[in-house]
Each structure stands twice: as C-alpha cells, then as structure tokens.
Amino acid sequence: MTPVAPPPPSFTRYRPAFTLVELLVVIAIIGVLVGLLLPAVQAAREAARRCSCANNITQLGLALHNHEFSQEAFPAGVTDDAGPIRSVAEGKHVGWIVRLLPYLEQTAAARNFDEAAGAYGEANQPVRRLRIQVLTCPSNPLSFPGREGPEVGHATYAGCHASKETPIDAGNDGVLFLNSRIRFGDIADGSSNTLLLAEHLLRSDDLGWVSGTRSTLRNTSRIEDAPRFDRAAPEEAADPLAVGGLGSFHPGGLQMALADGATRFLARTTDPEVLRQLGARADGELPVMEGDR
C-alpha cells in the first residue's frame, strides 16, 4: 500500500499596513505641518490683498490729479447748498467720487448720473447700486445695505476733509470738503506732507460711494480699530454730524495717497500730531517727524 504524502504546509500571506499608533503619529505630523504652513499662506494672501489695495489707492490718486489738471482744481469733497453736512439720506450730497467717474473709466455711470436729483434721488438709484472694484479694499469683508432699504455700492476709501474731528463744512482745512475747489498750489504745506485720501472702516449706516458724507470723507483725528468679526465698526455716536477717522483691516496700518501722487502705508502707531499735520493742507507748521517727540 502506497503511503499518502502529507499535505504541503500552508503559508499565510500578510498585507503590510499601518498600526493605529503609526496612523496617529502621521496625523500629528500632518497637523503640525498644516499649522506651520497656514500662517504663511494667510500672510501671502494678505500681501496680495495689500498690493491690490495700494493699486486702488494709486488709481484714485491719479484720477484726482487728472481732475485737477483738466478742471484746474480738485473736485469738491461734497456738493450741497449749505452745510454742515449731516450723514443722513437727505440733501444733494453729491460726493467727490461722482466727479471722478470719467477718470476711472466709468463714463456710462457719469452720463447716467443726474446731479439735480441728488445722491439719493430715484433717478440715480441704478448708479448708486454700482459696485466699482477700484473703490473697495479686498481685505475689507464688510458690506451693508443702505439705511433706507436698497443695497448700495460702497467705498472703503475716503478723502480727507479735515485734520481734526469736525463736521464736514465749507472752510475745512483738508483738501476735499463742502463745495471745495482746492488747487494744487493751495497746498502750502507741501504735497508730500498732505494726505489726499486713505482707507476707512464701513459703518452699518453707510450711504454709499455717491454720498459726500462720512461714507466718503474722513479726517485724521485718529486711526480706528477694525472689528474682530464681520460686523460694522463700533458707532460711538449717533450724531449725524460726527465724521470719524481712518481705519482698515490690514495688520499694522492702512494705505494712503499723498497729494504728490505717492502711495504709502500709514502705520497704526503713527504719532497723533503727525496725523493731524497730514490732514491739514496749509497749517504753516514745521512737519513733525516720527520719534521727534
């Protein structure tokens, strides 16, 4: 009888795999790498937004200078029959940005704006709703509907009407104010020492870029802190005559345009006296430099 051969030994094949501990280690390493990389990505994005904002400021500054060259004066900060200007949707309130439309390649908007109807007239609602890219800083996330109902286009850039907190009126010491007609030669303190426009924070009662109120005019009394969340800037006073200072969502400061055409970054820690002198076009004082006091 032929003996039966034993069956060949069986071999169990194992698939390579990570253990739970190894997976946890890998996840932890990935988490650390993401934590290190994310701030760098955010910083790069903010740098790009800041560059875009500087370009917007430069374009607006060039438009103001082109207006001065062709019309022999900077545009009026706001056109109205009488002052002081109240930040409510009443009156003409035709703002300086309306005058710049032909110099910002917005000729159609300029032709469709009826100045006689005023900033809040029904005939001007289509223009008032326009969102013009050059008027908004990409770092500013806030956008609010107009107080009276329909959504309006906003501007996060404001012309300088005064060097201190004071109502927008005729005779302000800035470059753009009520019915102003400032020539380049009227900037006696020097164009490189005088602020033309800068960033500002939107408010929940913002009236839009066509309105020559605190929506498009500010002073150099202070640099306001940006809100931590996507909410309106704190409204310290309900007084419609209150105007407010400058501000932005850029870390450390804001973009500004000087009257000589230069675009600069204004630090949030700038000396208040330097701010005041930047806002005045002809105070006759020697300029104060940072660190002199």
Shape: elongated
In the sheet with the most strands, the strands line up as 5-3-4-8-9
- Total helix count? 5
Strand content: 5-15%
The biggest beta sheet, please?
5 strands, mixed
Short description:
With 293 residues, the protein is α/β, with parallel strands linked by helices. The chain has 5 helices and 9 strands.
Structure notes:
This protein is α/β, with parallel strands linked by helices. The mean pLDDT is 86. The strands form three sheets. Strands 5-3-4-8-9 form a five-stranded mixed beta sheet. Strands 1-2 form a two-stranded antiparallel sheet. Strands 6-7 form a two-stranded parallel ribbon. The protein has five helices and nine strands; from the N terminus they run αββαααβββββββα. It has one domain (40-279).
Write a concise keyword list for the protein shown above.
alpha/beta, 293 residues, elongated, 5 helices, two-stranded antiparallel ribbon
List the helices and strands and how they pair.
Layout: H1 20-71, E1 78-79, E2 94-95, H2 96-100, H3 107-111, H4 125-128, E3 157-162, E4 195-199, E5 217-219, E6 223-224, E7 246-247, E8 253-258, E9 263-267, H5 272-279
Parallel strand pairs: 3-5, 6-7
Antiparallel strand pairs: 1-2, 3-4, 4-8, 8-9
